[in-house]
Each structure stands twice: as C-alpha cells, then as structure tokens.
Amino acid sequence: MWTNLPRVLTLVVRGFALTLAVLTTVVVIRTLTFPSYQTSPPECKTTDPDFIPADEERLARFTSAIQFQTVSYERGVGTPQELLKFVRFIQESFPTIHSSPLVRREVVGNYSLLYRVEGSDASLEPYMLASHLDVVPITQEASWEAPPFSGEVQDGYIYGRGTIDAKHSLMGSLEAVEFLLSRGHQPKRTLYLAFGHDEETGGHFGAKVIGDVLTERGEKIAFILDEGTPVGDGLVPGVSKPVAMVSVSEKGIVGVKLKVQAEGGHGSMPARKSAIGILARAVQKLEDNPHPSMFGTGPEARMLEYVATEMTLPYRMLASNLWLFSPLVAWVYAKKPQTNAFARTTTALTSFTAGVKDNVIAPEAEAVVDHRIHPMQTVEEVLEFDRKVIDDARVMLEVKGSLPPSPVSPHGKDSPTYTVLQETIQQIFPDALVAPTFMVANTDTRHYWNLSSAIYRFNPYVMTPSDLPRFHGLNERISVGNYERVMNFYYHLIVNMDKPLEVKRHGHEDEL
Ligand SMILES: [Zn+2]
Q1: Contacts of 9 by beta carbon, 8 Å cutoff, 6+ apart
Q2: Ligand 1 mean position to 132 CA, how many Å?
Q3: 1 CA to centre of ligand 1 in angstroms
Q4: How far is the CA of 183 from the centre of ligand 1 (A)?
Q5: Tens of pLDDT along 394-413?
Q6: Which residues are catalytic?
Q7: What local confidence, expressed as pLDDT, does residue 510 receive?
Q8: Distance (Å, rounded) from C-alpha 311 to C-alpha 319?
Q9: What single string gives the DSSP state of each residue in 378-442?
Q10: How confident is the model at residue 509 (pLDDT cuts 50, 70, 90)?
Q11: DSSP code for 92
C-alpha cells in the first residue's frame, strides 16, 4: 500500500490541475460569450413631432402640483382637505382627459383616483400605470435650499416634496395621456391610471380599495407599472453606463415580538436567570446569526447577469459565472448594509422593553425584530430560522404583522411585458442598460397582486449616489430634463403598448 503513495499523490495533483484547467476554460469562455440582454430601439429625440417638451405650461402645472401639502402622517392620518384640493386641481389642469368620452374617472376611497381610458380593441387586456397623491412629511424644513412645498426652480431643478416620490409619475403620466388624447389619438389597448392617496402609510385606504374594486369587477390587467427603482448612474459597481433597474419583486416584512416571562422580585435577592438576561441572549443570537445568503436564487443575481457584458473586468468575469462565483459575490454583498439587503432576509432589532425601576427585577421583557424577507423566502421559513437560532423555549415568538415577499414578475426576453418596458426605457435613456432587481421597500402594488402577474416598479429618471438621500429626505428635487423624460417615457410606453404583446425572440441565450 505504501509503495503506491507517490502514484496516488501524482494522480491527485493531476486531477486537481485538470479540474482547475477545465474550470478556468469554462469561466473564460462564458465571460467571452455571455449573451447581451440589451436592445437598441429607435431613440426618442427632441426633434420628433410627438416629443413632449417640458415647456412653461407643463412645468407650471408640475410645480403647482408640488404646492399641495398632501402629507400622510400615519395609517389613516393624512391631509384630507389638501387631497381634495389637489384632486380638484388635477381635474382643472387636464381638460381633455376630464372631458373625453373615452375616459371614465372614479374617485375611490374618498380621495384616490382611478381613470379608465377606453382602447379601441376590446380584445386586448388593459394595463395600469400607478402612482400616488400623497407625500411623506417634511423634516429639517429650515435646511431646505427652497421651501419644500414651493416647487421652486433653481439651476434646472424643481425642488419640493413629491418631485421624485411620486408626483413626477402622477403628473407625467397625466401629461402623456392629455397629450395623446388632445392629438386625437385613441389607444388600442385600454389603460388605467391608478393614484392612491395613502401610499406612504401602506395604501390601506387608497390602493387597497382600488385593488378591491377592480378585483370585484373581475378585471385582469396585462401589466402594472408603479413607482420604484430609478435609472442608477454610478449605483452598480463595475458598470460605467447608467443602469435602469426594473423591480420585478418586493421584499416581504415580518415583525416578530419576542417575549420572556420570568420571576420578578426585589433586586436584593435575584434568581439566577432574569427575563432581561434570557431575552438579551436571544436577541444577541439573532444578531450574531444572520439569515442565510439567498444570493444567486433571485432577481439580485439576474441583475448582474443582465449587465454582465457591459461590465469591466473582473466584474464581468464574476457576473458571467455566478454558477461558480455566487458564494464569493454573496460574501462581498454581506459587507455593506446596502448590498447585504439584496443578499438575504435582514434582521433589525428595533425595540427592547423591560423594567420600570432600578431595584425591581422585571418579570417580563419584550423585543421587536424587523425582518425584511428576501423574495425567495417565506414568512414561515423566517420564523422557523429564528426559533432554531434562539433555541430557548422560554422565549415566546409572536408575529406582530407580516407581508410575504411579492411574487416575482416575468422578466427577460421571453416576457413580452418586460420587453416592452425595456424597449421604452431604452428609447428614453439610450445610454442605459436595463436590468431586473427587487425593492427592499414596498409600494402600493402590494394591493394589486390579484390583478396581474406582471407588476413592475420603476421610476423613469436618473439618480446618482448623491441623490439617494433626497428620497424621503432633505432637498427632494428633480431636474427639468428628468421630468421631461418622465412625460415622454409614459407617452412612449402608451404608444408601444398598442403593438401586440408577443415574444419577439427565442433562443438558447435565455437558458442560462
Ligand atoms: Zn412613493
């Protein structure tokens, strides 16, 4: 036996070298031959006869829309008078829409708006463009470069709450429909415009009711587009071009209350284990043991693959070979909170309550964990994992509230709705790559799951890393150029939706 050892070693080394050589060859070949997912449809130009310019009139309408203080504070607490005024303003601002025999307008849930623009071909499934009337409250008002409800224009930017969330898409889609109808054009495919009034506090009284109304009517929607992820410039590492990120899913949420009851009593004669001590150990375990990486199983991996061919090395090599490098990318993603949120179900310890007096042992301790669930996991799996990690029967788990991750909408060349969206995006943003992703926050679309299996969340404007804090934050603003793109994006989407929705390409390149 011992005499064979050198021979065995040689074989092992040779085997290893061979495997490495094969792997390297596969990696190199895939890197060089990885398919491109991008298209190049005819670009939308300012000289086009049907280009919608951000002229004085349209800008004035938009800045006026910003001046309505339609703030949502918390669930069921908003600004009803402002909403009513804003709704009236919309009615007065778009005379063609509001007088056209093709349009049916309904007020739903007292303040939300639902428009149906009748298409000429009833055999085509309608689609829906969604946005919302409300905005988040103002913080640090004194630090704004322009008053937050002014709609003031400074250096080519329109300032104010709602400019990027989401009065841009509300006004932009209305401008597109107004433009279309005033040119005497009737769309072939029926379209809905759905504007909820309490998106910022969950949409329970707006979008929820819109969803219910349409479900009761048995309406099936070909696809829904709501606010969402932007065209990111400098947001995706390894890609110099802007990336239009189309969210094909949303993370779920589960709030878990952990509760421990133990012996209370006077601080002078403590039992060995206190409620606080037991609970502290439990939350410590949760923080020390993050949920497993799901990187490579969902849209977060597709995003890299869709832009792979446009990446610089070595990103390109990694993204073209996720079959091999997923664990490595997952490890890198875990380093930063911003990327970690895309790789797994996150765990945030958000509250810890126990004790009232310095010399009294608390008989009870409670903590709350806020999990955001990766699209490829379920609420049950998350709870199961927590129980296993805590591994202590004294800690009771109770679900405070939950929303499962949204279904993943079809994407890629085999999906006609995604393809229409991608081509429209590339008409308006010819330099941009288009890629699927998912949202770590939620939109009104949570109330529309019954209506359509193709739900997309996308904002047709460019954002750089320094713009991100403006979202729900200080100095929210949109450039005039971006607002112009928003209007033209919706217009082109409506025009493109008149073409039959069919799969244009088939091929092996989709079978990754
Ligand atoms: Zn919003």
Answers
A1: none
A2: 7
A3: 72
A4: 30
A5: 999 999 999 999 999 999 98
A6: 134, 199
A7: 43
A8: 8
A9: -HHHHHHHHHHHH--TTEEEEEEEEEPPPPPPP-STT-HHHHHHHHHHHHH-TT-EEEEEEESS-
A10: very low
A11: H
